[in-house]
Amino acid sequence: MTAAPIGDPVSNAPVVAYEALEAVFEDIRSHALYDHELHGCLNCGICTATCPSAHYYDYSPREIVQLLWTENLEGIYEAMQEKIWACAQCYTCAARCPFDNSPGGLVMIMREVAIKHSMPSAKEALRPFSRVLLKVISTGNQLAPNMITRDAFPDWGPNVTKVEAPLDVLRKAIPVPTMHTTDTAWEVNLKTSVELYTIWEETGVLQQLESIDENLFDVICDVMDEKRDQYAEWQEEQKEAEADA
Q1: Residue range 34-50: average pLDDT?
Q2: Do 93 and 200 reside in the same domain of the chain?
Q3: Averaged pLDDT score across all residues of the chain
Q4: What percentage of residues in the chain have a pLDDT greater than 90?
Q5: Is residue 199 part of a domain?
Q6: In this predicted model, what pLDDT tens digit does every residue of 201-217 receive, in sequence order?
Q7: Are 138 and 186 in a shared domain?
């Protein structure tokens, strides 16, 4: 017998079938890190009391743990629509919990599952980071410090101006050679790029990305197909050079 769908009678949001809620929770519970991050809960509230995000958003690490510990399927699904995206991933909660729970780690698992299930909340949360995702997936590198400017990231808000500093000078004072500028941070070996693309492909990362941002998926596929062609041409050139030698 099919379970009745669940919905809020005073909300315009579509109802969610119980089977869908179960599937979401099963993906969370079957995650390799789930048992490592959740051990029980005293409901002491220490995690929430020390959580920076809890002071500014409708978010509570204790609520996340309680929802998962009690297997509150409706509450878990609801939290995945907005609350889990408020976590700053500082892991202060994990450092304070007397049961060695890691609410931050559980949130990461829930975010992965939200992406897997193509939840609108995941699409909305990741939309401002499309350029970062393009950079990381296509090259395996992160942003260079001199990319983080008000002009480059207008959608990051006014606080981005705080990093508009003499970054070249600061980086020389605390040397991180591969992150000085885009000239070095963006330099990636062709073979490495192709290998990374294969990893993203084989592990299902690209499949999940397609469900979240199809346009970004298409761009990355175009970039990496071109790199694969370039790498294949380079290999042929090497073989010809060896044969001539």
Answers
A1: 94
A2: no
A3: 83
A4: 49
A5: yes
A6: 998 888 888 988 999 89
A7: yes
Predicted confidence band of residue 144 (pLDDT cuts 50, 70, 90): low
pTM, two decimal places? 0.73
Domain residue limits at 110? 18-117
Tokens 């890190």 belong to 33
**What are the structure tokens assigned to 13, written together?**
């949001």
Residue 9: inside a domain, yes or no? no
Instruction: Point out the domain boundary residue: 90, 117, 144.
Output: 117
Phi, then psi, of 222 in degrees rounded to 5: -65, -45
Q: What is the reported pLDDT for 159?
A: 63
Does 203 share its domain with 105? no
Residues 74, 162, single domain; the answer is no
